[in-house]
Sequence to fold (152 residues):
Amino acid sequence: MSEVKVIGIGNDHAAVEMKNQIKEFLEEKGYQVINYGTDSDESCDYPEYGEKVGRAVAEGKVDAGVLICGTGIGISIAANKVKGVRAAVVSEPVSARLTKEHNNANIIAFGARIVGIEMAKEIVSAWLNAEYIGSGRHERRVDMIRKIEETR
Ligand code: RB5
Fold:
């Protein structure tokens, strides 16, 4: 991923408070954050928000995406249906760093019912501060993932 300046954030009803906290955290760090998520605690459908952020990333409207639902799983599955998206669900910062270094994940996802806010901040920081290795076996494997998309 090239330099990240604009981040799209999306969430369902399970993650409104965490979304607001992470948005503020990222803005304090100087990122521009576009909110694609719900701001209501009323039950809603996470695929809508996974798709919105996935399309924004794939179309280059934002440089990267953050997705939060109860577990981070449903919303990332939805985002991963968009061509060009590599969304990774993590619950700690080592995986967050490695999914940028090895998989060039362009969306990071986590669960508001799984991780606390401090862990969520560590996850986002580790992912944003990491660099895709982008050569050798990692590049070959990410290219293989791209090829799978061509056969859908
Ligand atoms: C909503 O209840 C919950 O299913 C959703 O936030 C998410 O955890 C789905 O994967």
Notes: Residues 4 and 114 are 26 Å apart (CA to CA). The chain has a mean pLDDT of 97. Strands lie at 6-11, 32-35, 64-69, 87-89, 107-111.
